[in-house]
Every structure is written in structure tokens, then in C-alpha cells.
Amino acid sequence: MGDLIYTLITGAVTGWLAGQLIRGRGFGILWNILIGIAGAVIGGWVFSLTGLAVTNWIGTVISGVLGAILLLWIISLFRSR
After folding, report:
1. For the segment 8-53, what is each residue's pLDDT rounded down to a tens digit?
2. More confident position, 46 or 1
3. SS3 sequence of 35-62
4. Is the separation of the CB atoms in 55 and 27 below 8 Å?
5. Domain encompassing residue 10
6. Side-chain half-sphere of 77: how many Cα atoms within 13 Å?
7. DSSP state, 23?
């Protein structure tokens, strides 16, 4: 249960930050949270491919924001067509 709460809080922070950094590409708070959670997964995966370890909450948020930005950018490519 603690992991779920941690994931939701991290996703909320990550999605909100990504939505703030990528103006005009957000989808509202609920979708930004979901994109933030997916971004945290993507960011963790990308960081692990590069050999960088994410070991604390700040690292998780940073990798999640980068993953969410990447995901928002990919979504915007399909959305603009």
C-alpha cells in the first residue's frame, strides 16, 4: 500500500512539473498525473539503459519529469495530425 501511495504522489508531482514545463501540451490534472506515473516508468527505464541509478525521491522525480516530457512530446506528435 505504501508503494502505491508513493507512486501516486510521485506521479502527481512529476505530471504537474511536466505540465508546467511543457505549456500547451498538458491534458488537465488527472491526465497529467497519469502521464506523470507513466513518465516515471519511462524515465526510470531510460535512466537504467544509460547506467544511471535513481536511488532517491528527487532522482525519481527528475527521471519522471524527463520521461513525462518525452511522453508528452510523443503524444503531441500524434495529436497534431
Report:
1. 788 788 888 887 887 655 567 778 778 888 888 888 888 888 887 7
2. 46
3. HHHHHHHHHHHHHHHHCCCCCCHHHHHH
4. no
5. 2-79
6. 5
7. T
